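Researcher: Go.
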Amino acid sequence: MLSPEQATKHSLYDDSTLHNTHLPVLMPYNRLLAPAGQVVAYGNADLENHALDVQLVPDTPLLAVEDRYGVALIDTTQRNVVARWTYADDARTKGMMSTYSGLKVLRQEGVVHLL
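Model: Structure:
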């Protein structure tokens, strides 16, 4: 329960989300989001989600992006998602969510692995 003092300090920014179309976006807890380049939005906008880690895929224009619900491959030249894997897609991981950033991309014997 909020004290009267806390209740008067509420701001519209306290409840803002990434649905905002005006940049930069001021998020709760004084987080300011100001993209440095082109934004590629994907996923379910009704879910709280953001990139946890990103890695370039060697010798390709692909960027692997780990988010709370899975991994996406973004073609940096076309600026779109070319592949997506989510925890919900696999019965073994359905209902899970990533809270740790630690995406690794490596090439082994000519094959690229996302770990």
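Model: The first strand starts at residue 25 and ends at 27.
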